[in-house]
Design goal:
Blueprint lengths: L2 H12 L1 E9 L11 E5 L4 H16 L6 E9 L7 H10 L3 E6 L7 H13 L3 E5 L1 H9 L5 H8 L3 E4 L6 H10 L5 E3 L17 H4 L7 E4 L2 E2 L10 H4 L5 E2 L2 H13 L4 E4 L10 H13 L6 E6 L9 H7 L2 E9 L3 H6 L10 H9 L4 E8 L6 H14 L4 E6 L7 H9 L24 H15 L2 H10 L5 H18 L7 E5 L14 H49 L9 H18 L4
Parallel strand pairs: 1-3, 1-4, 4-5, 5-6, 6-7, 8-11, 11-12, 12-13, 13-14, 14-15
Antiparallel strand pairs: 2-16, 9-10
Length: 591
Protein backbone atom coordinates (compact mmCIF):
# COMPACT_ATOMS: atom_id res chain seq x y z
CA UNK A 1 0.00 0.00 0.00
CA UNK A 2 1.34 3.44 -0.94
CA UNK A 3 2.05 6.04 1.74
CA UNK A 4 -0.74 8.33 0.49
CA UNK A 5 -3.28 5.45 0.68
CA UNK A 6 -2.16 4.67 4.24
CA UNK A 7 -2.62 8.32 5.15
CA UNK A 8 -6.14 8.36 3.72
CA UNK A 9 -7.11 5.14 5.54
CA UNK A 10 -5.66 6.45 8.77
CA UNK A 11 -7.67 9.67 8.40
CA UNK A 12 -10.87 7.73 7.81
CA UNK A 13 -10.31 5.57 10.87
CA UNK A 14 -9.61 8.57 13.09
CA UNK A 15 -12.77 10.42 12.03
CA UNK A 16 -15.39 10.81 14.71
CA UNK A 17 -18.94 9.84 13.81
CA UNK A 18 -22.21 11.54 14.67
CA UNK A 19 -25.40 9.61 13.94
CA UNK A 20 -28.41 11.70 12.92
CA UNK A 21 -31.44 9.41 13.24
CA UNK A 22 -34.50 10.86 11.49
CA UNK A 23 -37.80 9.24 12.51
CA UNK A 24 -41.31 9.96 11.31
CA UNK A 25 -43.34 8.32 14.10
CA UNK A 26 -46.59 6.53 13.43
CA UNK A 27 -49.55 6.46 15.81
CA UNK A 28 -51.35 3.89 17.92
CA UNK A 29 -54.55 2.24 16.74
CA UNK A 30 -57.60 1.84 18.99
CA UNK A 31 -56.06 -1.31 20.52
CA UNK A 32 -52.81 0.48 21.29
CA UNK A 33 -50.70 -1.10 18.54
CA UNK A 34 -48.38 0.96 16.32
CA UNK A 35 -49.87 1.36 12.84
CA UNK A 36 -47.38 -0.07 10.35
CA UNK A 37 -47.82 -1.45 6.84
CA UNK A 38 -46.00 -3.65 4.38
CA UNK A 39 -46.53 -0.77 1.95
CA UNK A 40 -47.87 2.69 2.79
CA UNK A 41 -49.38 5.35 0.54
CA UNK A 42 -48.38 8.80 1.78
CA UNK A 43 -44.69 9.79 1.69
CA UNK A 44 -43.65 12.10 4.52
CA UNK A 45 -42.57 15.43 3.04
CA UNK A 46 -41.27 16.59 6.45
CA UNK A 47 -38.91 13.62 6.59
CA UNK A 48 -37.67 14.39 3.07
CA UNK A 49 -37.14 18.05 4.04
CA UNK A 50 -34.97 17.28 7.08
CA UNK A 51 -33.14 14.56 5.16
CA UNK A 52 -32.15 17.12 2.50
CA UNK A 53 -31.03 19.56 5.20
CA UNK A 54 -28.91 16.82 6.78
CA UNK A 55 -27.31 16.07 3.41
CA UNK A 56 -26.49 19.79 3.09
CA UNK A 57 -24.97 19.81 6.59
CA UNK A 58 -22.78 16.88 5.56
CA UNK A 59 -21.60 18.74 2.44
CA UNK A 60 -20.78 21.82 4.47
CA UNK A 61 -19.06 19.84 7.26
CA UNK A 62 -20.97 21.83 9.89
CA UNK A 63 -19.39 19.73 12.67
CA UNK A 64 -15.87 20.13 11.32
CA UNK A 65 -13.82 18.16 8.85
CA UNK A 66 -12.92 15.54 11.48
CA UNK A 67 -16.57 14.55 12.17
CA UNK A 68 -18.55 12.32 9.84
CA UNK A 69 -22.34 12.72 9.94
CA UNK A 70 -24.07 9.34 9.54
CA UNK A 71 -27.75 9.76 8.61
CA UNK A 72 -30.50 7.21 9.29
CA UNK A 73 -34.06 7.31 7.88
CA UNK A 74 -37.09 5.64 9.50
CA UNK A 75 -40.69 6.18 8.50
CA UNK A 76 -42.41 4.10 11.18
CA UNK A 77 -45.52 3.60 9.06
CA UNK A 78 -43.45 1.17 6.95
CA UNK A 79 -40.28 0.49 8.93
CA UNK A 80 -39.83 -0.66 12.52
CA UNK A 81 -37.55 1.56 14.60
CA UNK A 82 -34.88 -0.75 16.14
CA UNK A 83 -34.30 1.27 19.31
CA UNK A 84 -31.97 -1.12 21.11
CA UNK A 85 -29.97 -2.02 18.00
CA UNK A 86 -29.36 1.64 17.15
CA UNK A 87 -28.25 2.36 20.72
CA UNK A 88 -25.85 -0.61 20.67
CA UNK A 89 -24.47 0.49 17.31
CA UNK A 90 -23.70 3.97 18.61
CA UNK A 91 -22.23 2.83 21.93
CA UNK A 92 -20.13 0.03 20.44
CA UNK A 93 -18.33 2.44 18.14
CA UNK A 94 -17.94 5.11 20.79
CA UNK A 95 -19.97 7.48 18.62
CA UNK A 96 -22.47 10.19 19.44
CA UNK A 97 -26.04 10.51 18.18
CA UNK A 98 -29.17 12.63 18.12
CA UNK A 99 -32.61 11.07 17.68
CA UNK A 100 -34.97 13.41 15.79
CA UNK A 101 -38.76 12.95 15.69
CA UNK A 102 -39.71 14.76 12.49
CA UNK A 103 -43.01 16.36 11.41
CA UNK A 104 -44.90 15.08 14.45
CA UNK A 105 -48.65 15.70 14.26
CA UNK A 106 -50.89 15.71 17.32
CA UNK A 107 -52.10 12.12 16.83
CA UNK A 108 -48.46 10.99 16.49
CA UNK A 109 -47.19 12.89 19.53
CA UNK A 110 -47.85 10.14 22.15
CA UNK A 111 -45.92 7.63 20.06
CA UNK A 112 -43.10 10.13 19.48
CA UNK A 113 -42.70 10.74 23.22
CA UNK A 114 -42.74 7.01 23.98
CA UNK A 115 -39.94 6.44 21.44
CA UNK A 116 -37.95 9.33 22.90
CA UNK A 117 -38.22 7.86 26.38
CA UNK A 118 -36.96 4.50 25.11
CA UNK A 119 -33.91 6.17 23.54
CA UNK A 120 -33.34 8.40 26.58
CA UNK A 121 -33.30 5.33 28.85
CA UNK A 122 -30.45 4.01 26.69
CA UNK A 123 -28.45 7.22 27.01
CA UNK A 124 -29.24 8.94 23.68
CA UNK A 125 -30.42 12.54 23.28
CA UNK A 126 -33.74 13.20 21.55
CA UNK A 127 -35.71 16.06 20.02
CA UNK A 128 -39.25 16.50 18.67
CA UNK A 129 -40.44 18.93 15.99
CA UNK A 130 -43.55 19.28 13.88
CA UNK A 131 -47.04 20.71 13.92
CA UNK A 132 -48.11 19.65 17.41
CA UNK A 133 -45.20 21.30 19.16
CA UNK A 134 -45.16 24.32 16.83
CA UNK A 135 -48.92 24.88 16.85
CA UNK A 136 -49.31 24.46 20.60
CA UNK A 137 -46.51 26.89 21.42
CA UNK A 138 -47.71 29.43 18.85
CA UNK A 139 -51.39 29.49 19.85
CA UNK A 140 -51.48 28.74 23.60
CA UNK A 141 -50.46 31.16 26.38
CA UNK A 142 -48.42 28.54 28.23
CA UNK A 143 -46.60 25.36 27.32
CA UNK A 144 -49.16 22.53 27.49
CA UNK A 145 -48.53 19.79 30.09
CA UNK A 146 -47.75 16.99 27.61
CA UNK A 147 -44.93 19.06 26.12
CA UNK A 148 -43.63 20.24 29.51
CA UNK A 149 -43.64 16.65 30.78
CA UNK A 150 -41.48 15.47 27.88
CA UNK A 151 -39.10 18.41 28.36
CA UNK A 152 -38.79 17.50 32.05
CA UNK A 153 -37.73 14.03 30.89
CA UNK A 154 -34.91 15.53 28.82
CA UNK A 155 -36.57 15.71 25.40
CA UNK A 156 -35.72 18.85 23.39
CA UNK A 157 -38.66 20.57 21.66
CA UNK A 158 -38.24 22.45 18.37
CA UNK A 159 -40.99 24.84 17.27
CA UNK A 160 -41.04 26.32 13.78
CA UNK A 161 -39.11 25.69 10.58
CA UNK A 162 -35.44 24.72 10.80
CA UNK A 163 -34.10 25.45 7.29
CA UNK A 164 -31.62 28.08 8.45
CA UNK A 165 -31.09 26.53 11.91
CA UNK A 166 -30.44 22.86 11.27
CA UNK A 167 -26.66 23.18 11.31
CA UNK A 168 -26.80 25.02 14.65
CA UNK A 169 -29.08 22.36 16.13
CA UNK A 170 -26.71 19.60 15.04
CA UNK A 171 -23.76 21.45 16.57
CA UNK A 172 -25.58 21.82 19.91
CA UNK A 173 -26.56 18.15 19.80
CA UNK A 174 -23.01 17.03 19.01
CA UNK A 175 -21.47 19.11 21.77
CA UNK A 176 -24.13 18.13 24.32
CA UNK A 177 -25.48 21.67 24.75
CA UNK A 178 -29.06 21.21 23.56
CA UNK A 179 -31.62 23.50 25.18
CA UNK A 180 -35.00 22.23 26.38
CA UNK A 181 -36.82 24.39 23.81
CA UNK A 182 -35.99 26.11 20.52
CA UNK A 183 -38.61 28.52 19.22
CA UNK A 184 -38.14 29.58 15.59
CA UNK A 185 -41.78 30.48 14.95
CA UNK A 186 -41.05 34.17 14.56
CA UNK A 187 -38.39 33.55 11.93
CA UNK A 188 -40.02 32.14 8.79
CA UNK A 189 -37.18 31.17 6.42
CA UNK A 190 -37.11 32.14 2.77
CA UNK A 191 -37.06 29.01 0.62
CA UNK A 192 -34.95 30.30 -2.26
CA UNK A 193 -31.79 28.21 -2.75
CA UNK A 194 -32.67 26.01 0.24
CA UNK A 195 -32.11 22.32 -0.60
CA UNK A 196 -35.50 20.92 -1.70
CA UNK A 197 -36.92 17.78 -0.03
CA UNK A 198 -35.31 14.53 -1.11
CA UNK A 199 -36.02 10.87 -0.42
CA UNK A 200 -33.90 8.09 -1.88
CA UNK A 201 -35.46 5.41 -4.05
CA UNK A 202 -34.43 2.86 -1.42
CA UNK A 203 -36.72 4.53 1.12
CA UNK A 204 -39.51 5.11 -1.39
CA UNK A 205 -39.69 1.42 -2.31
CA UNK A 206 -41.79 0.91 0.81
CA UNK A 207 -44.60 3.04 -0.68
CA UNK A 208 -47.26 2.62 -3.36
CA UNK A 209 -46.58 3.62 -6.02
CA UNK A 210 -42.84 3.26 -5.54
CA UNK A 211 -42.16 5.83 -8.28
CA UNK A 212 -43.84 8.61 -6.31
CA UNK A 213 -42.29 11.23 -4.05
CA UNK A 214 -43.29 14.63 -2.70
CA UNK A 215 -41.98 18.14 -2.31
CA UNK A 216 -43.27 21.46 -1.06
CA UNK A 217 -42.92 24.17 -3.69
CA UNK A 218 -43.99 26.77 -1.14
CA UNK A 219 -45.42 27.28 2.33
CA UNK A 220 -48.22 29.25 3.93
CA UNK A 221 -51.81 29.99 2.93
CA UNK A 222 -53.60 33.36 2.65
CA UNK A 223 -57.01 32.13 3.82
CA UNK A 224 -58.42 32.14 7.36
CA UNK A 225 -60.03 28.71 7.94
CA UNK A 226 -60.55 28.36 11.69
CA UNK A 227 -59.75 24.62 11.77
CA UNK A 228 -56.40 25.03 9.97
CA UNK A 229 -52.98 24.83 11.64
CA UNK A 230 -50.95 25.73 8.53
CA UNK A 231 -51.73 29.44 8.68
CA UNK A 232 -50.59 29.69 12.31
CA UNK A 233 -47.39 27.65 11.97
CA UNK A 234 -46.22 28.50 8.45
CA UNK A 235 -47.98 31.86 8.20
CA UNK A 236 -50.39 33.52 5.78
CA UNK A 237 -47.64 35.16 3.73
CA UNK A 238 -46.68 32.84 0.90
CA UNK A 239 -43.06 31.77 0.46
CA UNK A 240 -41.87 29.81 -2.58
CA UNK A 241 -39.00 27.75 -3.90
CA UNK A 242 -37.39 28.72 -7.20
CA UNK A 243 -38.05 26.99 -10.54
CA UNK A 244 -34.32 26.13 -10.68
CA UNK A 245 -34.52 24.24 -7.37
CA UNK A 246 -37.66 22.39 -8.44
CA UNK A 247 -36.07 21.42 -11.76
CA UNK A 248 -32.92 20.21 -10.02
CA UNK A 249 -35.02 18.05 -7.70
CA UNK A 250 -37.05 16.55 -10.57
CA UNK A 251 -33.91 15.73 -12.54
CA UNK A 252 -32.28 14.15 -9.49
CA UNK A 253 -35.39 12.07 -8.84
CA UNK A 254 -35.74 11.08 -12.49
CA UNK A 255 -32.22 9.64 -12.34
CA UNK A 256 -33.48 7.23 -9.66
CA UNK A 257 -36.74 6.42 -11.43
CA UNK A 258 -39.14 8.80 -9.67
CA UNK A 259 -41.79 10.28 -11.98
CA UNK A 260 -44.84 11.10 -9.83
CA UNK A 261 -45.08 13.88 -7.28
CA UNK A 262 -47.44 15.07 -4.62
CA UNK A 263 -46.82 18.81 -4.33
CA UNK A 264 -47.33 19.21 -0.60
CA UNK A 265 -48.17 22.95 -0.55
CA UNK A 266 -51.34 23.47 1.45
CA UNK A 267 -52.60 25.51 -1.52
CA UNK A 268 -50.37 25.39 -4.60
CA UNK A 269 -52.62 27.82 -6.52
CA UNK A 270 -51.55 30.60 -4.13
CA UNK A 271 -47.83 29.91 -4.51
CA UNK A 272 -46.38 33.16 -5.90
CA UNK A 273 -44.10 31.14 -8.20
CA UNK A 274 -46.71 28.67 -9.41
CA UNK A 275 -46.52 29.79 -13.04
CA UNK A 276 -42.73 29.82 -13.55
CA UNK A 277 -42.51 26.50 -11.68
CA UNK A 278 -45.21 24.93 -13.85
CA UNK A 279 -43.69 26.43 -17.01
CA UNK A 280 -40.44 24.71 -16.08
CA UNK A 281 -42.20 21.39 -15.50
CA UNK A 282 -43.99 21.75 -18.86
CA UNK A 283 -40.63 22.24 -20.55
CA UNK A 284 -39.22 19.18 -18.80
CA UNK A 285 -42.18 17.14 -20.05
CA UNK A 286 -42.46 18.49 -23.59
CA UNK A 287 -38.86 19.29 -24.48
CA UNK A 288 -36.77 16.96 -22.33
CA UNK A 289 -39.43 14.20 -22.51
CA UNK A 290 -39.31 13.53 -18.77
CA UNK A 291 -42.60 11.81 -17.84
CA UNK A 292 -43.98 13.74 -14.88
CA UNK A 293 -47.30 13.33 -13.08
CA UNK A 294 -48.53 15.68 -10.41
CA UNK A 295 -51.08 15.85 -7.64
CA UNK A 296 -51.75 19.21 -6.00
CA UNK A 297 -53.89 20.70 -3.24
CA UNK A 298 -55.92 23.75 -4.25
CA UNK A 299 -58.86 25.89 -3.21
CA UNK A 300 -62.30 25.96 -4.81
CA UNK A 301 -61.63 29.10 -6.86
CA UNK A 302 -58.20 28.14 -8.23
CA UNK A 303 -59.68 27.36 -11.64
CA UNK A 304 -60.48 31.08 -12.03
CA UNK A 305 -56.78 31.99 -12.01
CA UNK A 306 -55.84 32.84 -15.57
CA UNK A 307 -54.01 29.95 -17.30
CA UNK A 308 -53.80 27.93 -14.07
CA UNK A 309 -55.98 24.94 -14.98
CA UNK A 310 -54.70 24.72 -18.55
CA UNK A 311 -51.06 24.82 -17.52
CA UNK A 312 -51.57 22.34 -14.70
CA UNK A 313 -53.01 19.87 -17.20
CA UNK A 314 -50.05 20.39 -19.57
CA UNK A 315 -47.65 19.90 -16.67
CA UNK A 316 -49.04 16.43 -16.03
CA UNK A 317 -51.48 17.17 -13.22
CA UNK A 318 -53.62 14.05 -12.86
CA UNK A 319 -55.31 14.72 -9.52
CA UNK A 320 -56.41 17.77 -7.56
CA UNK A 321 -57.40 17.70 -3.90
CA UNK A 322 -59.90 20.49 -3.25
CA UNK A 323 -60.75 21.91 0.16
CA UNK A 324 -64.50 21.84 -0.38
CA UNK A 325 -65.26 21.09 3.30
CA UNK A 326 -69.08 21.32 3.06
CA UNK A 327 -72.08 21.91 0.82
CA UNK A 328 -73.85 23.69 3.67
CA UNK A 329 -73.37 27.50 3.47
CA UNK A 330 -73.81 27.88 7.22
CA UNK A 331 -70.98 25.43 7.88
CA UNK A 332 -68.69 27.27 5.48
CA UNK A 333 -69.45 30.52 7.25
CA UNK A 334 -68.86 28.97 10.69
CA UNK A 335 -65.37 27.84 9.66
CA UNK A 336 -64.43 31.19 8.03
CA UNK A 337 -64.26 29.39 4.67
CA UNK A 338 -65.46 32.55 2.93
CA UNK A 339 -63.80 31.75 -0.40
CA UNK A 340 -66.02 28.68 -0.89
CA UNK A 341 -69.23 29.44 -2.79
CA UNK A 342 -71.66 26.57 -3.27
CA UNK A 343 -72.94 28.09 -6.51
CA UNK A 344 -69.43 27.71 -8.00
CA UNK A 345 -68.84 24.07 -7.07
CA UNK A 346 -70.27 22.48 -10.21
CA UNK A 347 -68.44 24.91 -12.53
CA UNK A 348 -65.22 24.38 -10.63
CA UNK A 349 -65.39 20.59 -10.75
CA UNK A 350 -66.35 20.55 -14.41
CA UNK A 351 -63.43 22.84 -15.26
CA UNK A 352 -61.01 20.22 -13.93
CA UNK A 353 -62.89 17.30 -15.47
CA UNK A 354 -62.77 19.01 -18.86
CA UNK A 355 -58.99 18.87 -18.56
CA UNK A 356 -59.08 15.14 -17.69
CA UNK A 357 -58.02 15.77 -14.08
CA UNK A 358 -59.43 13.54 -11.35
CA UNK A 359 -61.12 15.57 -8.62
CA UNK A 360 -61.37 14.66 -5.01
CA UNK A 361 -62.39 16.80 -2.11
CA UNK A 362 -61.99 17.05 1.62
CA UNK A 363 -65.36 17.12 3.37
CA UNK A 364 -65.73 17.94 7.08
CA UNK A 365 -68.48 16.56 9.32
CA UNK A 366 -69.48 17.79 12.76
CA UNK A 367 -69.85 21.56 12.38
CA UNK A 368 -71.88 23.10 15.24
CA UNK A 369 -75.08 23.21 13.18
CA UNK A 370 -74.83 19.62 11.94
CA UNK A 371 -77.14 16.80 12.94
CA UNK A 372 -77.00 13.18 11.83
CA UNK A 373 -79.91 13.85 9.48
CA UNK A 374 -78.42 17.03 8.01
CA UNK A 375 -75.06 15.32 7.42
CA UNK A 376 -76.63 12.43 5.54
CA UNK A 377 -78.83 14.84 3.56
CA UNK A 378 -75.81 16.91 2.57
CA UNK A 379 -73.92 13.77 1.50
CA UNK A 380 -76.85 12.86 -0.76
CA UNK A 381 -76.68 16.35 -2.27
CA UNK A 382 -72.94 15.91 -2.80
CA UNK A 383 -73.56 12.61 -4.61
CA UNK A 384 -76.50 13.80 -6.68
CA UNK A 385 -75.62 17.33 -7.70
CA UNK A 386 -71.84 17.55 -8.06
CA UNK A 387 -69.60 15.77 -10.61
CA UNK A 388 -67.03 14.83 -7.98
CA UNK A 389 -65.07 11.60 -8.26
CA UNK A 390 -63.57 11.02 -4.83
CA UNK A 391 -64.38 12.37 -1.39
CA UNK A 392 -62.46 12.14 1.88
CA UNK A 393 -64.52 12.67 5.03
CA UNK A 394 -63.10 14.15 8.21
CA UNK A 395 -64.56 14.81 11.65
CA UNK A 396 -64.13 18.46 12.60
CA UNK A 397 -61.23 18.29 15.05
CA UNK A 398 -59.86 21.11 17.24
CA UNK A 399 -56.24 20.47 16.29
CA UNK A 400 -53.65 22.14 18.54
CA UNK A 401 -52.35 25.06 16.51
CA UNK A 402 -55.75 25.98 15.06
CA UNK A 403 -57.95 28.95 15.94
CA UNK A 404 -60.68 26.52 16.97
CA UNK A 405 -58.44 24.82 19.52
CA UNK A 406 -57.19 28.15 20.86
CA UNK A 407 -60.74 29.42 21.43
CA UNK A 408 -62.00 26.20 23.04
CA UNK A 409 -58.97 26.03 25.34
CA UNK A 410 -59.49 29.67 26.39
CA UNK A 411 -63.18 29.01 27.08
CA UNK A 412 -62.42 25.92 29.14
CA UNK A 413 -64.34 23.61 26.81
CA UNK A 414 -63.56 19.97 27.74
CA UNK A 415 -61.34 18.43 25.06
CA UNK A 416 -60.15 14.87 24.73
CA UNK A 417 -56.90 14.43 26.66
CA UNK A 418 -55.78 11.49 24.50
CA UNK A 419 -53.91 13.11 21.62
CA UNK A 420 -53.90 9.79 19.80
CA UNK A 421 -57.55 10.53 18.93
CA UNK A 422 -56.75 13.80 17.11
CA UNK A 423 -56.64 12.04 13.74
CA UNK A 424 -59.85 13.59 12.28
CA UNK A 425 -61.67 10.24 12.49
CA UNK A 426 -62.46 10.31 16.23
CA UNK A 427 -64.70 12.86 18.02
CA UNK A 428 -62.50 14.86 20.41
CA UNK A 429 -65.12 17.04 22.09
CA UNK A 430 -68.83 17.10 22.80
CA UNK A 431 -71.06 18.30 19.97
CA UNK A 432 -73.99 20.69 20.70
CA UNK A 433 -76.52 18.55 18.78
CA UNK A 434 -75.08 15.03 18.66
CA UNK A 435 -73.51 12.59 21.08
CA UNK A 436 -69.98 11.46 20.23
CA UNK A 437 -71.38 8.08 19.27
CA UNK A 438 -73.89 9.68 16.90
CA UNK A 439 -71.21 11.84 15.27
CA UNK A 440 -69.01 8.79 14.79
CA UNK A 441 -71.97 6.95 13.24
CA UNK A 442 -72.55 9.88 10.86
CA UNK A 443 -68.87 9.78 9.89
CA UNK A 444 -68.97 6.06 9.12
CA UNK A 445 -72.32 6.24 7.33
CA UNK A 446 -71.08 9.12 5.16
CA UNK A 447 -68.27 6.89 3.88
CA UNK A 448 -70.70 3.99 3.36
CA UNK A 449 -73.16 6.17 1.46
CA UNK A 450 -70.62 7.82 -0.83
CA UNK A 451 -68.83 4.55 -1.61
CA UNK A 452 -71.95 2.45 -1.93
CA UNK A 453 -72.21 0.07 -4.88
CA UNK A 454 -74.70 2.38 -6.60
CA UNK A 455 -72.64 5.53 -6.26
CA UNK A 456 -69.39 3.83 -7.29
CA UNK A 457 -71.20 2.79 -10.44
CA UNK A 458 -72.42 6.36 -10.98
CA UNK A 459 -68.91 7.78 -10.54
CA UNK A 460 -67.41 5.32 -13.02
CA UNK A 461 -70.13 6.03 -15.58
CA UNK A 462 -69.35 9.74 -15.41
CA UNK A 463 -65.69 9.20 -16.24
CA UNK A 464 -65.23 7.98 -19.83
CA UNK A 465 -61.51 8.62 -20.28
CA UNK A 466 -58.42 6.71 -19.23
CA UNK A 467 -58.59 8.10 -15.68
CA UNK A 468 -61.19 5.49 -14.76
CA UNK A 469 -58.54 2.95 -13.75
CA UNK A 470 -56.87 5.47 -11.43
CA UNK A 471 -60.23 6.19 -9.78
CA UNK A 472 -60.78 2.47 -9.23
CA UNK A 473 -57.37 2.16 -7.53
CA UNK A 474 -58.20 5.05 -5.23
CA UNK A 475 -61.54 3.48 -4.36
CA UNK A 476 -59.78 0.26 -3.38
CA UNK A 477 -57.42 2.29 -1.18
CA UNK A 478 -60.20 4.34 0.45
CA UNK A 479 -62.61 1.44 1.00
CA UNK A 480 -59.98 -0.94 2.36
CA UNK A 481 -58.71 1.71 4.80
CA UNK A 482 -62.12 2.74 6.15
CA UNK A 483 -64.18 -0.45 5.94
CA UNK A 484 -61.52 -3.10 6.58
CA UNK A 485 -58.69 -1.50 8.56
CA UNK A 486 -60.81 1.13 10.37
CA UNK A 487 -58.31 3.94 9.74
CA UNK A 488 -58.53 7.12 7.70
CA UNK A 489 -57.13 6.67 4.15
CA UNK A 490 -54.39 9.20 4.88
CA UNK A 491 -53.13 6.74 7.51
CA UNK A 492 -53.76 3.67 5.36
CA UNK A 493 -51.60 1.20 3.50
CA UNK A 494 -51.39 -2.32 2.17
CA UNK A 495 -51.35 -5.23 4.65
CA UNK A 496 -51.07 -4.31 8.29
CA UNK A 497 -47.96 -5.36 10.22
CA UNK A 498 -48.50 -5.68 13.95
CA UNK A 499 -45.69 -6.67 16.31
CA UNK A 500 -46.70 -7.98 19.73
CA UNK A 501 -44.27 -5.70 21.55
CA UNK A 502 -45.10 -2.68 19.38
CA UNK A 503 -47.83 -1.56 21.76
CA UNK A 504 -48.42 1.52 23.88
CA UNK A 505 -46.77 1.21 27.31
CA UNK A 506 -50.08 2.36 28.79
CA UNK A 507 -51.63 -0.98 27.82
CA UNK A 508 -50.64 -4.50 28.93
CA UNK A 509 -48.52 -6.73 26.72
CA UNK A 510 -50.61 -9.57 25.31
CA UNK A 511 -49.59 -13.14 25.97
CA UNK A 512 -48.12 -15.01 23.02
CA UNK A 513 -51.14 -17.36 22.61
CA UNK A 514 -53.67 -14.49 22.82
CA UNK A 515 -51.68 -12.38 20.39
CA UNK A 516 -51.16 -15.28 17.95
CA UNK A 517 -54.88 -16.08 17.93
CA UNK A 518 -55.85 -12.45 17.38
CA UNK A 519 -53.26 -12.00 14.66
CA UNK A 520 -54.28 -15.17 12.81
CA UNK A 521 -57.92 -14.08 12.94
CA UNK A 522 -57.08 -10.55 11.72
CA UNK A 523 -55.04 -11.80 8.76
CA UNK A 524 -57.71 -14.30 7.75
CA UNK A 525 -60.46 -11.68 7.90
CA UNK A 526 -58.29 -9.25 5.95
CA UNK A 527 -57.75 -11.76 3.15
CA UNK A 528 -61.47 -12.55 2.90
CA UNK A 529 -62.58 -8.91 3.05
CA UNK A 530 -59.97 -7.69 0.58
CA UNK A 531 -60.93 -10.42 -1.86
CA UNK A 532 -64.62 -9.50 -1.49
CA UNK A 533 -63.87 -5.80 -1.98
CA UNK A 534 -61.76 -6.48 -5.06
CA UNK A 535 -64.45 -8.69 -6.59
CA UNK A 536 -67.17 -6.12 -5.79
CA UNK A 537 -65.38 -3.24 -7.50
CA UNK A 538 -64.25 -5.46 -10.38
CA UNK A 539 -67.87 -6.51 -11.02
CA UNK A 540 -69.05 -2.89 -10.90
CA UNK A 541 -66.35 -1.89 -13.39
CA UNK A 542 -67.23 -4.78 -15.73
CA UNK A 543 -70.91 -3.83 -15.59
CA UNK A 544 -70.14 -0.19 -16.44
CA UNK A 545 -67.84 -1.18 -19.30
CA UNK A 546 -70.38 -3.66 -20.64
CA UNK A 547 -73.24 -1.12 -20.57
CA UNK A 548 -71.03 1.53 -22.13
CA UNK A 549 -70.04 -0.76 -24.99
CA UNK A 550 -73.67 -1.73 -25.55
CA UNK A 551 -74.71 1.93 -25.67
CA UNK A 552 -72.10 2.73 -28.31
CA UNK A 553 -73.05 -0.39 -30.30
CA UNK A 554 -76.70 0.68 -30.28
CA UNK A 555 -75.77 4.15 -31.52
CA UNK A 556 -73.61 2.71 -34.29
CA UNK A 557 -76.35 0.30 -35.42
CA UNK A 558 -79.05 2.97 -35.45
CA UNK A 559 -76.79 5.29 -37.45
CA UNK A 560 -75.87 2.61 -39.99
CA UNK A 561 -79.47 1.32 -40.45
CA UNK A 562 -81.73 3.90 -42.15
CA UNK A 563 -85.50 3.56 -42.37
CA UNK A 564 -86.77 1.64 -45.42
CA UNK A 565 -86.46 3.73 -48.57
CA UNK A 566 -84.34 6.42 -46.91
CA UNK A 567 -80.64 7.24 -46.92
CA UNK A 568 -79.04 9.07 -44.02
CA UNK A 569 -78.24 12.64 -44.96
CA UNK A 570 -75.04 14.52 -44.16
CA UNK A 571 -77.03 16.69 -41.78
CA UNK A 572 -78.42 13.66 -39.92
CA UNK A 573 -74.92 12.15 -39.67
CA UNK A 574 -73.59 15.39 -38.19
CA UNK A 575 -76.54 15.39 -35.81
CA UNK A 576 -75.73 11.84 -34.73
CA UNK A 577 -72.10 12.83 -34.14
CA UNK A 578 -73.25 15.76 -32.06
CA UNK A 579 -75.53 13.47 -30.06
CA UNK A 580 -72.61 11.13 -29.40
CA UNK A 581 -70.54 14.02 -28.08
CA UNK A 582 -73.46 15.17 -25.97
CA UNK A 583 -73.85 11.66 -24.58
CA UNK A 584 -70.18 11.65 -23.53
CA UNK A 585 -70.51 15.11 -21.99
CA UNK A 586 -73.71 14.03 -20.29
CA UNK A 587 -71.82 11.18 -18.70
CA UNK A 588 -69.72 13.77 -16.88
CA UNK A 589 -72.80 15.20 -15.22
CA UNK A 590 -74.54 13.59 -12.26
CA UNK A 591 -77.06 10.95 -13.24
Amino acid sequence: MHDDQIAVMSGLQSKKRFHVVLIKPSRYDDDGYVIRWARAIIVSNSLAVVNALTEDAMRQSVLGSDVEIVPHWFDETVKRVPVKRLARQVRAAGDRAIICMVGVQSNQYPRAVDLCREFTALGLKTMIGGFHVSGSIEMLPTIPPEIQSAMDDGVTMVAGEVEQRWGDLLQDAYHGTLKPLYNFLGDKPALESIPPPFASADNLRHFLPSRQSSFDAGRGCPFQCSFCTIINVQGRSMRARTPDDVEALIRRNYAQGIREYFIADDNFARNPNWEPIIDRIIRLREVDKIPIRLMVQIDTVAHRIKRFADKMARAGCRRVFIGMESVNPENLKASAKYQNQLSEYRTMLQAWRDRHVVTYAGYILGFPGDTYESIMRDVEYLKRELPLELAEFFILTPLPGSKDHQQYAAQGVPLDEDLNNYDTSHPCMDHPKMSREELLRAYRDAWKSYYSREHIETILKRRKDNRRTRIVMHMLWFCSSVFIENVHPLLGGLFRLKGRRQRSPRLPLESIPAYAWRRARDVSLWLVRMAALFVKIRLILRKVNREENRDYTDVAISRATPLPGKTPSLASTKSANAMDRAAVAGGARPG
